[in-house]
Specification:
The protein is built from twelve helices and two strands, in the order H-H-E-E-H-H-H-H-H-H-H-H-H-H. By secondary structure, it is mainly α. The longest helix has 35 residues. It is globular, with a radius of gyration of 20 Å. The two termini are 36 Å apart.
């Protein structure tokens, strides 16, 4: 078991180094992508700064609490884009071209290979910018270090990454049937848009929508749970539900991907 884990870690390290070498071959493109990400963050911050110039609270979130929420979102989005997003986008092309056959012949776990074969180093700065935003927000709030809060935050953020990955990979698996699944990736961007907002905004007539995307399709737990743990209140029941949802979604994504591969018709068939 340990030897197998070490083997996969060595392989992932080799894939990450290869991805970095490819990125450095086109340094201009690498720098442009980083610049675009910085501009996107600047626009996002300007937008929320404008909102908080007119009000002090948005759906019970103060300015610096919301700044922490944005930093949490940007960090998680950076992790997903760095590790998984490009790989999932390329999967449909492998199906369309028939190159998927060559990958399936390799003596390695298919989900690991299709999820982790490429690392997008140009989005790594997003992770650091998101962490920086969270740090600034906590400093402005005069937050006092609490080991329990930090530990629960790390666990909840890890659950958020795995839940978001599971949603993304299940959408990717549908490429086996649709071949070209741009519309499904548009659905992914819709889900990330829902992740960007606090669950508290869905009150009154919109409460059923907030409930649906928290307990049926738990996409709103991805950012809300870790952010609330750090800057609002620890809710044991929501942390537990996030953990249960993570286990269920990771298992479901694994089963669905295996089912999709069994339905795959190779280029030679």
């Amino acid at each position: 078991m340990i030897n197998s884990i070490l083997r996969y870690l060595r392989l992932y390290g080799a894939l990450a180094r290869y991805s970095l070498t490819r990125e450095m071959a086109f340094r201009g493109n690498f720098l442009v992508k980083i610049t675009v990400e910085i501009l996107w963050l600047g626009i996002l911050l300007a937008f929320y700064a404008t909102i908080f110039s007119k009000t002090s609270v948005v759906a019970s979130w103060s300015q610096y609490q919301y700044l922490f929420f944005i930093g949490c979102y940007f960090t998680l989005e950076g992790i997903l884009e760095t590790l998984f997003l490009e790989n999932c986008h390329q999967f449909s092309e492998l199906v369309r071209s028939g190159d998927l056959d060559l990958y399936l012949l390799k003596p390695i776990d298919e989900q690991f290979l299709f999820s982790c074969r490429h690392v997008d180093w140009s989005t790594v700065p997003n992770i650091f910018m998101g962490c920086g935003l969270m740090g600034v927000a906590l400093y402005c709030m005069n937050w006092q270090f609490d080991l329990l809060q930090v530990s629960l935050f790390v666990v909840a953020l890890g659950c958020g990454v795995l839940m978001a990955y599971s949603f993304l990979f299940m959408l990717t698996s549908v490429s086996v049937w649709l071949t070209r699944n741009q519309s499904l990736h548009e659905l992914w961007w819709l889900l990330t848009t829902l992740m960007r907002y606090p669950r508290d905004i869905f009150n009154g007539a919109w409460a059923p929508m907030g409930w649906f995307f928290s307990f049926v399709i738990p996409v709103m737990l991805v950012i809300n749970v870790p952010a609330r743990v750090m800057v609002k209140i620890i809710e044991p029941e929501m942390i537990a539900w996030a953990a249960v949802s993570t286990i269920a979604l990771v298992s479901l994504s694994r089963l669905f991907f295996s089912f999709a591969l069994r339905r795959y018709r190779s280029a030679s068939s």
